[in-house]
Amino acid sequence: MEDRILLSGSVSPDDLELPADPAELRAFAEAMRARLAASEQALEAERVAHDETREKLQTAQNSIKLTTLQIEKFKVQLARLRRMKFGQSSERLALQADQLELTLEDLEAEHAHAECVIEGHVPEDASAKAAPRKPRRAPLPDHLPRDEVMHAAPDADGCSDCGGTMGKLGEDVTEVLEYVPGRFRVVRHVRPKLSCNRCDAISQAAAPALPVPRGRAGPGLLAHVIISKFADHLPLYRQSQIYAREGVEISRSTMADWLGQASWLLQPLVDRIADHVMASVKLHADDTPVPVLAPGTGKTATGRLWVYLRDNRRWSHLDKPAALFRYSPDRKGERPREHLKTFAGFLQADAYAGFERLYASDRQPAPITPVACWAHARRKLNDVYKADPNSAALDGLLMIGELYDVERQIAREPADFRRKARKLSKLKALDFFAWADDVLSRASARSPLAEALRYAVKLKPQLLAYTDDGRLEIDNNPAENALRGICLGRKNWLFAGADCGGERAAAMYSLLETAKLNAVNPQEWLADVLDRIGKGHPINRIDELLPWNWAVLA
């Protein structure tokens, strides 16, 4: 019976011998329906995947067309501004030129990223034929020290075809510019080419695998460029100027190309960090403004960088911390709703109204429980106290200080222990709110003290939430700390060159801050990760490269 049911693709329905027994015939029909349903399901899945790929390719192609036009336009504008060195408006023109430099590096990086998206879905030979010829590259500077790496030919010991002796035919040398913290070096990859003296077979090692196939940047240099831009807040054009002083000419455009390709390579790691963050039972959230240049206007708009932080180490020592950054062109409530669409749990954040819809009881996949921040409440009272040391705000500060005293005593304790210890915190917090109600009943409604206390009273349930659950924290300082570097960096880079630059910055900050949280050196980690990816690290083993796993593998 089973042989009858299993059909070959070459058998036609007319040639098929159907079973005579009604029960067997029904079983046969059910088997056919099941196979048909499975085939239809597979075809539908294939169609959906095809549509998604086509959409990605179309988006990437459109991005290339748009960025190409914008890049050429801004290059002309930049060249004109660089020629205008004198006059009363020279300082203003210099600022405009710097703005265009930032815009160009973001657009050029986006252009390179889009090219990687296309090449990732197009056969290698087809994409190579379509790639335009680029200008011949200048040789790497002679003054740099060189390290030589010899790649032995596979058949150096004897011809694999006939067993004959191999003789040297020549060699190919690939020079790669590498960066070892503090200095540049050139790594010479030498690949002797051998020929068989008997059958003329040729043997040579494969060319070294690099993260950027058509470039000459080693993984250490790529990591350094990324760290310099996003951790040290040095725009690419400033990096180019610094390297030139060391006798190494690397254009901003070249580094932007590297950055776009590297960001494409690293995107799977960002995606895995996002999955890890959203799987947490609790998140810290915060955001900060980011000036973004409006291309062609010389003016800036205000975008936002959001951080969603997973850090449960205070009560679960083995939990792995991670930070996910997202960029948006504005601060509309729909932005965090999109960022957190898969999250369900506790959200510790400020009183931003855009979060309110996340707390709805009918929200899917589940409602989010708000947790407020005592540091915000304390900060408002502290501002009142600084303005008037004789204010009753001091009493409130002292009571909040007692809550923090309890937290210091239970740091790094298990969640259940923290929950029990916080019974005392809850009593102290209720005393604070009783005092606040009393002060509000007597103080002027428009006084600074009243305004500060109304903020706390309005958030009473959210401020008390941490006292009933040992997994929660008293404040949102972890998220604020994650944004501190960005806030300091704004003084250097002033603005993002474009929205695509803000999105790339968010991805890179996710990687760097997550490495920092796991006590991993970002330079060493990124260099090793880029090296492994360049050598073909399997995508199904991407978790091995996450910062908390990489420390074990290093």
Give a quick rundown of the structure.
The chain is of the alpha/beta class and 554 residues long.
Determine the number of helices (DSSP H or I, runs of at least 4 residues): 17
Q: Detail the poorly predicted runs.
A: 1-13, 121-133
Percent in helix = 40-55%
Q: Biggest sheet, strands in spatial order?
A: 7-6-5-8-9
* Class by alpha and beta content: alpha/beta
Mean pLDDT, to the nearest integer, reads: 84
Outline the secondary-structure elements.
Elements: H1 2-5, H2 22-83, H3 90-119, H4 124-130, E1 146-150, E2 166-180, E3 183-196, E4 202-203, H5 219-230, H6 236-245, H7 252-278, E5 282-294, E6 299-310, E7 322-328, H8 334-339, E8 346-348, E9 369-371, H9 374-387, H10 393-409, H11 415-442, H12 448-458, H13 460-464, H14 477-493, H15 499-517, H16 522-534, H17 547-553
Parallel strand pairs: 1-3, 5-8, 8-9
Antiparallel strand pairs: 2-3, 3-4, 5-6, 6-7
Helix pairs in contact: 2-3, 3-7, 5-16, 6-7, 7-15, 9-10, 9-12, 10-11, 11-12
